[in-house]
Amino acid sequence: RPKMKMHAITVMIGLYHVMYFIACVQGGNLFIDPGMMEDDWRSRFLALVAGDHLSVAPGTYTMTRRLGLTLLGTIDQNITIEGMGGMATFYRPLTNQNVWDVDRGEYFQIKNIELVGGSSGLNLGAGGNISYGIFKNMKISDMYYSGVVHGINVVQHCQFLKVEIFNRAVVGMGSGHCFLMGSVAPSVK
Fold first, then answer.
1. What's the half-sphere exposure (Cβ side, CA atoms, 13 Å) at 52?
2. How do residues 90-138 score in pLDDT, each as one tens digit?
3. What is the pLDDT of residues 8-47, one digit of tens each?
4. Rounded distance, CA 187 to CA 124, Å?
């Protein structure tokens, strides 16, 4: 009898997680929380398409490798990544990679997110052009080199609203910049 109860509980918990996942995915609404495995929350970032809204629960998400985002929304269906109910912190302890790379994107919003550590907090345009991006209520800190760095492609019509960049260039570890835009290519507008 106790074994049957345990199996029934396990099945119920499994069904709850499946139903929760289906509810989060329907209608372009996705959810991640810091208790998830890195591969699980990373896969949700990498699957974003026009009209999706990724709700990020508050807490710390430790990163072990590069997160290269392609955020291709449309004028009518932006992609939104939003920290919910408090600041969601993405922490990269090593300085050999940026915290986030928005490689390519248009018509997207990133709100209420904190990027900590890494070589740079946010790298824009390493894999293509960036346009009509909104970065709002963000904190970028404790990076080795730069808060926001621009890659080799065009970055245009983007807004940085209430973005705080501080504690750049960890003492004794480089010169550091808040924004390093257009140093690689003359294409920032």
1. 20
2. 999 887 889 999 999 999 999 999 999 988 889 888 888 999 999 999 9
3. 445 444 443 444 444 444 448 999 999 999 999 999 999 9
4. 12
What SS3 state is found at 41? helix
Cβ neighbours around 82 below 10 Å, total: 16
Task: Give the strand pairing for 177-180 and 146-150.
Answer: parallel
DSSP letters, 92-122, are: E--SSS-SEEEEEEEEEEEESEEEEESSEEE
Side-chain half-sphere CA neighbours of 77 within 13 A: 10
Q: Model pTM greater than 0.85?
A: no
Q: How far apart are CA 116 and CA 145, in angstroms?
A: 12
What region, left, alpha or beta, does residue 27 occupy, with left being phi > 0 and alpha being psi -120 to 50 degrees?
left
Task: Please report which residue ranges of 35-181 form alpha helices under DSSP H.
Answer: 38-46
